[in-house]
Structures are given as C-alpha cells and as structure tokens.
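We close this part of the discussion by returning to an individual protein. The amino acid sequence and the backbone structure tokens for this protein are reproduced below:
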Amino acid sequence: AATHAGTLRYLAPELRRGSARASPACDLFSAGAVLLELLTYPTPLPDAFDRIDDDLDADRYVPDDAPSPWRVTLAALLARDPDARHW
C-alpha cells in the first residue's frame, strides 16, 4: 500500500481513495484547495475536506459571490476527474 505525506485537506480525491499515484493533476487539485482556502479566509475549508469522502463535492464550497474567473478556475482545479483538471 502506498503512503502519502501532507495534509489530507489538500490531497486529491483519487489519492485519498488510494486509487491512483501522485500526478500533476493531484498537484492541480492541491493548488485549487489552497486557492479556495485563501479566497474564503478567514473561513477555512470545511472539516469535510479532512475526511476521506467519495461524495465530497469541492465545487460547492466556492462562494457564490466569488468573481467569475475565480469560480471557473477553481472548478477546473478541483474537478473530481483528474483528466478534467487544468489551469
């Protein structure tokens, strides 16, 4: 079994499930999680990000009042499908 170092809330869903190896797509997810946390400061990411949860929908945590470019970027970075992630 593979082990991963780092903070669970920034770990891509596929790594949390143990179904993939680290890849650039995982890095994109982590960058999106950090950007989302910066955007919502001082409100941190919900505790749900600290759980291994296949039903976690990261996109729903993007604030409705976030500027459109942020919403588009975060949706792309936080996509559940690693192949759909892009910058």
User: Anything to note?
Assistant: DSSP finds three helices and no strands in the chain. The chain has a mean pLDDT of 80. Residues 24-40 form the longest helix (17 residues).
